[in-house]
């Protein structure tokens, strides 16, 4: 095993790799609570919950998808990188595909499976480089930043820090609960909003102090404080058998064999968005983490890039079958790298930790909107940092990026933001006399996304 994972070449050992693997798991563990919460619609009114799979099944799917993806990355890709259902992709799945586009969650899972299958083909055929070159850098960064703002907005909304307002659309929620004229439900909402703010402050302090598992620890501290003040229920037990996968396992198959369900404009947009976000998120994360670990080749590329990207794609396909949104590489893997992880054995340890986590599902009873909100907001901040990479001094680059970023949270749709940016970008270039600078693929996407808007208006 030492020889397979090249311990001597990488200057590492079992102890260091095990510590690094556990560190990566702790940095990623928040997804075990956040992803089921996002996909099950736990923050939605009761009449909408019927559209979603059971919370427990999504937890099991999340843990298994993370374990499968991480083990594949460790064994095949031999990189110290963990995988799990991606933040942003789960938000797109729930709030855009299911709630806005009214696509059944089973059909949405079929879209995830198709997009990951295409990703696998692109990874194995070497088309990846051509596609990366086709999409402008500014739009890539804008998509990531826009998703970050969208996720943060969801966190603020779920916590009640931002609420609906008839006059201004949104406003600051109730943060004072000592007003005697307030209704009991308003007092409870105010207390939960304050709990979320407390959790956010704790998480920010931990991360600013370079605590690798700061998001996870922040959620635990928030939940404990919530239990002390009666805002979070105590778990009835700690260990149990994993929840059944029956409500979600194989649900995508009923649509995969139905051409009328797959070959529609809406489903084309769904598949393209899943593919686009996962493709560039995975590529960027793999390069970033490998660079920090000093694993990049002399030409700046990944070692075994085909196997690494194929591991990502296969994990996404497995996750869709199990019942969760797209699985992708996690930037939190840098925590394990910082702890000394250098080989795929780090990822193997992380994958085993996700398997062990299957038996602690009762602890999810402490997950409330106030507990998950800080994690969503912080992840949003980290993703929004890509705004700095946009060429703001060049209007034909800045304006499409700005629309992409702005429209995602304001329209409550990741797909709308991407579509707007991909329509405006070639138009701006043509108007400025730079039509030849636009890759032919961008013109194809222009018509695809234009059809998407026309379809929505109908």
UniProtKB/TrEMBL annotation:
InterPro entries for the chain: Azg-like, Azg-like_bact_archaea, NCS2
Keyword entries, A-Z: Cell membrane, Membrane, Transmembrane, Transmembrane helix, Transport
Any GO MF annotation of the entry: purine nucleobase transmembrane transporter activity
Primary location: membrane
Positions of transmembrane segments: 18-38, 58-77, 84-103, 109-127, 139-156, 188-207, 214-234, 263-289, 343-364, 371-392, 398-425, 437-455
Membrane topology term: Multi-pass membrane protein
Superkingdom as given in the UniProt entry: Bacteria
Glycosyltransferase listed as a keyword: no
Compartments (UniProt record): Cell membrane
Keyword Transmembrane: yes
Pfam hit, one: Xan_ur_permease
Cellular component aspect of the GO annotation: plasma membrane
Similarity comment text for this entry: Belongs to the nucleobase:cation symporter-2 (NCS2) (TC 2.A.40) family. Azg-like subfamily.
This protein's name: NCS2 family permease
């Amino acid at each position: 095993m030492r020889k397979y994972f090249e311990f001597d070449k990488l200057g590492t050992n079992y102890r260091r790799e095990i510590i690094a693997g556990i560190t990566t798991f702790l940095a990623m563990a928040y997804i075990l609570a956040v992803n089921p919460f996002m996909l099950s619609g736990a923050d939605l009114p009761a009449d909408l919950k019927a559209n979603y799979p059971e919370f427990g099944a999504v937890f099991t799917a999340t843990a298994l998808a993370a374990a499968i993806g991480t083990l594949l990355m460790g064994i095949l890709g031999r990189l110290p990188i963990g995988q799990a259902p991606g933040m942003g992709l789960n938000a797109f799945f729930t709030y855009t595909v299911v709630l806005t586009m009214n696509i059944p969650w089973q059909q949405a899972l079929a879209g995830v499976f198709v997009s990951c299958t295409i990703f696998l083909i692109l990874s194995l055929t070497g088309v990846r480089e051509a596609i990366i070159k086709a999409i402008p850098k500014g739009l890539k960064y804008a998509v990531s930043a826009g998703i970050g703002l969208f996720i943060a907005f969801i966190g603020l909304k779920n916590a009640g820090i931002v609420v609906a307002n008839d006059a201004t659309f949104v406003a600051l929620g109730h943060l004072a609960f000592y007003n005697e004229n307030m209704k009991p439900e308003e007092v409870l909402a105010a207390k939960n909003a304050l709990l979320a703010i407390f959790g956010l402050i704790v998480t920010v302090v931990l991360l600013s102090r370079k605590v690798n598992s700061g998001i996870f620890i922040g959620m635990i501290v928030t939940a404990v404080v919530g239990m002390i003040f009666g805002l979070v229920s105590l778990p009835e037990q700690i260990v149990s058998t994993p929840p059944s996968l029956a409500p979600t396992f194989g649900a995508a198959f009923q649509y995969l064999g139905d051409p009328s369900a797959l070959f529609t404009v809406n489903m084309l947009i769904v598949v393209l968005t899943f593919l686009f976000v996962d493709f560039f998120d995975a590529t960027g994360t793999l390069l970033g983490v490998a660079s920090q670990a000093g694993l990049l080749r002399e030409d700046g590329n990944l070692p075994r890039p085909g196997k690494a990207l194929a591991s990502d794609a296969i994990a996404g396909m497995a996750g869709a079958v199990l019942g969760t949104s797209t699985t992708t590489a996690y930037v939190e893997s840098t925590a394990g790298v910082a702890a000394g992880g250098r080989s795929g054995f780090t990822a193997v340890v992380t994958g085993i930790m996700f398997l062990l986590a299957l038996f602690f599902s009762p602890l999810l009873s402490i997950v409330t909107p106030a507990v998950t909100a800080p994690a969503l907001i912080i992840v949003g901040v980290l993703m929004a940092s890509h705004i700095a990479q946009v060429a703001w001094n060049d209007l034909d680059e800045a304006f499409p990026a700005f629309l992409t970023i702005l429209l995602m949270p304001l329209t409550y749709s990741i797909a709308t933001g991407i579509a707007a940016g991909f329509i405006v970008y070639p138009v701006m270039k043509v108007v400025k006399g730079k039509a030849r600078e636009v890759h032919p693929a961008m013109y194809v996407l222009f018509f695809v996304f234009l059809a998407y808007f026309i379809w929505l208006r109908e």
